[in-house]
Design a protein that fits this description.
This protein has 652 residues and is α/β, with parallel strands linked by helices. It has four domains: 9-111 and 217-293, P-loop containing nucleotide triphosphate hydrolases (Rossmann fold, 3-Layer(aba) Sandwich), CATH 3.40.50.300; 133-206, no CATH class; 301-398 and 535-648, Rossmann fold (3-Layer(aba) Sandwich), CATH 3.40.50; 406-530, no CATH class. The chain has a seven-stranded mixed beta sheet. Strand 17 and strand 18 (547-553) form a beta hairpin. Helix 1 (9-19) packs across helix 3 (50-62), helix 5 crosses helix 10 and helix 19 (471-486) runs antiparallel to helix 20 (490-506).
Length: 652
């Protein structure tokens, strides 16, 4: 490299002042990571502060931007939330990091901006209209006869239409794989779908799969782009690497694996890869030089002892969490044993244990608390009621309420508040649908069959089933309105949207009665407000004696830190024979200290990853809920039980 850059102790001290609590310093593990600008992988245990250490490195490097050769820094993560965290914490201090030639964003936004869009412009002489799965699927229009043929194919009609992708001009493969279309090229089904995919591509409607297919095609046909990108970015940091899918991993390898003059650092924890859709990623992520963060500022020793055996990729955890005064935390994990008729008493029992800790001052009441009860799976329509999931512990649980509920002061506000960026049109669409649902709630309109308020999904499903002739027109209406908003035509979009809402109300045999003021009030920059209605704040909460416990899925709490966490076993539909379908059965051997091997079933590994993520959230109390039958079969009388305080749940 023409310019040798070193991160100094003075720069690190400045980063500590910005990022760490008073009088706290980075330890040797983190100092080694921050100062090393070469190519390596960082594996970090839960609560290790890996993102904070990355931010310290970025703060130091930003002082050198742009580098002597005109290059910059590339920082990638899997989600917009992770990118926003980086921007919110250091954006005001690092303006050059967030401007050309550097780039901070998601893997999707990077792929779109640097590869997919440029290549599309070369091939089609224009920009794509939209890169978005929802908009792409909405434009799958075929004639009546072919649609009827698809509908008569049980199970795979929708798959044939939506899930095959255009590749190499005249090939159809399943999503991002090389699996060919199941019927020959001369069949009507192949020709019809091929023509549709070509039409969508030419019109500029691209799904996320297409984005990566086109990106790899670009690099294959124009390999010099790899060198150009390597010269653009001197240092590449990929945070939350474990959440990348295999195709994203492959793209990054093509771009940066062989780059001699690029520091390429992949940061993550393989044991927490619950978002990856590709089971093979575990084997695909080939390690190079590896550093580890073993120290966890979140976990106390008794919790760390439960978490460490669950790791698919063994890594020692050094528990460093203490009380505020520096004293050790010695709260034993709790095993709740329930029966069929006491499952709804599990969360109340957990609340009583938290109250005991608070009364005994084992939880510092001067600090903020977070109490969570979590499970992997939730109840779905048609599920066997004898198969336990999250809704059996907390029957009122709603997936829709997992996200922060925000009410806007008027309908027009829904045309102003949306997330800008790569998914702008999709974000506008979601905001418009939320506005429509708000009108339905104000008018007191609920689902005629379930009696529940509509969600976006249940409303669209209702239209599809009860008013199939209206569903395509409604989707087109939402798309047109979204496009008007994206183009800044707010007054026209509001009038168009209001007329569409009136038409939707007619489907329920009513007109605007109670929402007239909401629909006609001017936006005028009014700020959004949190929905504090009882239905919004309590449907996914259990409250007892002042203890508020949030009820959530494991996926929704990844990355969070809790004071106390209850992990409730749940049924996973895959059939794995003698190992069963509940985590408590699948991970029993590991909780007893038996390591996995190469023959360990993939569903056991999935359960281990879920439990690893869930068990590693709490700073103080970890609890695990197990049915009596599985407790008796796998845990009763074993040495493993001695590590837990066992509580039998009784009916109150």
């Amino acid at each position: 490299m023409p310019q040798e850059i070193k991160i100094t102790d003075e720069q690190i001290r400045l980063s500590e002042d910005i990022l760490l609590p008073a009088s706290r310093h980075f330890d040797n593990e983190r100092l080694d990571f921050i100062k090393d600008l070469g190519t390596f992988d960082l594996h970090a245990v839960p609560g290790s502060g890996k993102t904070t250490a990355l931010l310290a490195k970025l703060l130091a490097l930003e002082q050198h931007l742009p580098f002597e050769d005109g290059s910059g820094i590339l920082v990638l993560s899997h989600t917009n939330a992770a990118v926003d965290e980086i921007r919110n914490k250091i954006g005001s201090l690092c303006p050059r990091l967030f401007n050309c030639p550097s780039f901070v964003g998601t893997i999707q936004s990077f792929t779109d901006l640097f590869l997919t869009i440029p290549y599309y412009k070369i091939v089609y002489r224009k920009r794509p209209v939209r890169i978005d799965d929802d908009i792409y699927q909405e434009h799958h229009h075929v004639d009546y006869g072919f649609q009827k043929w698809l509908d008569n194919r049980p199970g795979d009609g929708k798959k044939l239409l939506h899930d095959y992708r255009l590749r190499d001009g005249d090939q159809l493969t399943f999503r991002r794989t090389t699996d060919a279309f199941p019927f020959g090229k001369k069949t009507k089904s192949f020709q019809t779908i091929l023509a549709l995919k070509k039409k969508l591509r030419e019109e500029g409607f691209i799904c996320y799969d297409d984005a990566y297919i086109l990106a790899m095609e670009y690099l294959d046909k124009f390999p010099r782009m790899i060198n150009i990108i390597n010269k653009r970015f001197k240092y590449v940091f990929v945070d939350e690497m474990q959440d990348m899918d295999a195709y994203q991993y492959a793209l990054l390898e093509v771009l940066f694996c062989q780059a001699r003059d690029v520091g390429y650092q992949r940061i993550g924890d393989k044991n927490q890869s619950i978002y990856s859709n590709d089971d093979a990623l575990q084997a695909i992520w080939e390690e190079r030089s590896v550093k580890e963060f073993n120290g966890s500022h979140r976990l106390q020793p008794l919790v760390a002892a439960m978490v460490e055996p669950l790791a698919i990729n063994p890594i020692p955890i050094k528990a460093q969490k203490t009380n505020v005064d520096g004293s050790p935390i010695n709260i034993n994990p709790i095993l709740f044993v329930y029966d069929n008729d006491t499952i709804e008493e599990v969360i109340p029992s957990f609340a009583r244990e938290i109250k005991k800790l608070a009364d005994s001052r084992l939880i510092d009441t001067q600090t903020e608390h977070t109490f969570k009860a979590i499970a992997w799976t939730t109840q779905k329509d048609g599920d066997d009621r004898n198969i336990f999931c999250l809704n059996h512990y907390h029957p009122d649980f709603s997936r829709e309420q997992q996200k922060l509920q925000i009410n806007y002061p008027c309908l027009e506000s829904y045309l102003h508040y949306f997330t800008p960026g790569t998914n702008k049109l999709a974000s506008i669409r979601k905001s418009l649908l939320n506005g429509l649902l708000r009108v339905l709630r104000i008018e007191g309109i609920s689902h005629p069959h379930t009696g529940r308020t509509f969600s976006k999904r249940s409303f669209l499903d209702y239209l599809k089933i009860e008013h199939p002739e209206s569903e395509p027109r409604f989707k087109l209406f939402v798309f047109k309105c979204s496009k008007m908003v994206a183009e800044g035509q707010i007054p026209q979009a509001l009038r168009f949207f209001s007329r569409g809402i009136e038409a939707s109300l007619q489907k329920f045999g009513t007109t605007i009665k109670h929402s007239r003021g909401f629909m006609t009030t001017s936006h005028e920059g009014k700020a959004p407000v949190l929905d504090t209605s009882p239905s919004a704040t309590t449907v996914n909460q259990y409250i007892q004696d002042g203890i508020v416990i949030d009820v959530a899925t494991v996926h929704s709490i990844k990355g969070q830190t809790h004071t106390c966490t209850l992990y409730m076993e749940s049924f996973y539909q895959a059939n794995v024979g003698k190992k069963g379908q509940y985590e408590s059965t699948r991970i029993a051997d590991q909780l007893k200290g038996i390591a996995i091997d190469e023959k360990t079933h993939k569903y056991i590994k999935q359960s281990l990853k879920m439990a690893y993520v869930g068990f590693s959230r709490p700073t103080h109390l970890l609890a695990f809920a197990i049915h009596r039958s599985r407790y008796d079969s796998h845990y009763a009388g074993t040495d493993m039980v001695k590590k837990w305080d066992v509580r039998v749940v009784h009916k109150k």
